[in-house]
Specification:
Pfam families: DUF3644 (PF12358). By secondary structure, the protein is an all-alpha fold. The protein has helices spanning 3-27, 35-59. The chain has one domain. Helices cover 69% and strands 0% of the residues. Helix 1 runs antiparallel to helix 2. The longest helix is centred in the N-terminal third of the chain and has 25 residues, at 3-27. The radius of gyration is 15 Å and the shape is elongated.
Amino acid sequence: MEEKSIDFVNKLIGKSTEAFIMGLEIYNKPTIKYRVEGFSFFICNAWELMLKAHIIKLKGENAIYYKDSEIG
């Protein structure tokens, strides 16, 4: 894997970790009324970022993008 792709994967994993921690922090604040929804958003975002990092490791960076002709 190229160094550029490795850097991109590491950034995605870092952002995924931050989103996961943010979700946990929001969920653990009992005074926030919208906390379950906020938790769900950040946990889903963390999962998506980690999945993209995994796909890039397996198939390369182009695997997470659509070509213009494929968008219908």
